[in-house]
From TrEMBL:
Name of this protein: ATP-dependent RNA helicase Ski2/MTR4 C-terminal domain-containing protein
Family annotation (Pfam families): DSHCT
Domain ATP-dependent RNA helicase Ski2/MTR4 C-terminal, residue spans: 7-134
Source species of the chain: Hemiselmis andersenii
Length: 192
């Protein structure tokens, strides 16, 4: 969903073979009313700040988070590599900010579950060539909350692509979660 608000490019001639999941489309639909109210409030105060809400690239972002290789991802869209990297990094930046938002109990603030999901998604997306130098260290408490399920999505990938929850086998997830002081940086090769 965050790709729908982080997108800064809109081209009518863009080819995207991987559409957004039903969950993302539903969230975008629910957000249209809020977008309209914010735009109306801006207009009443003489402001004209665009509010992006475009799910065009959401399927590409979901595919990347699910473990599709960079080469495979490039076959799913006509967007140039640099533009695609910029889009994925913008989404990662939004995901990185979510855990830092204030939590207000008994309010409509950012829940613990959303914070954890944002970190999970960031972990899955933070790999070469999109990876940057910002990593997270997982606390003991967060390790206890993480399950082998990965991120929940109803997105279907084309036949022959990755399988398992978010592209990882259960063994890979278990192994990664068992590591003490696990860094959210899966771009580095493990030494044997």
């Amino acid at each position: 969903f965050f790709s729908a608000i982080a997108v800064d490019m809109s081209r009518p001639d863009v080819f995207v073979a991987s559409g957004p999941s039903d969950v993302v489309l539903e969230l975008v639909e629910q957000s249209v009313d809020m977008k309209d109210r914010i735009l109306a409030a801006q207009m009443s105060h003489g402001l004209d700040i665009p509010i992006p809400l475009d799910p065009t690239f959401a399927g590409i972002v979901e595919a990347w988070a699910m473990g599709v290789s960079w080469t495979e991802l490039l076959t799913l869209t006509s967007v140039q590599e640099g533009d695609l990297i910029r889009l994925l990094r913008r989404v990662m930046d939004v995901l990185r900010q979510i855990p830092r938002l204030p939590y207000v109990p008994n309010d409509r603030g950012v829940s613990t579950a959303l914070r954890l999901q944002a970190r999970r998604a960031l972990t899955l997306m933070d790999r070469f060539p999109v990876s940057d130098d910002v990593t997270y260290t997982v606390s003991e408490e967060e390790l206890m909350e993480v399950s082998n399920e990965g991120l929940k999505t109803d997105m279907k990938l084309p036949e022959g692509q990755i399988s398992g929850p978010m592209g990882w086998s259960e063994g890979e997830v278990s192994e990664a979660l068992a590591k003490e002081d696990m860094l959210f940086d899966y771009t580095a090769e493990e030494s044997d």
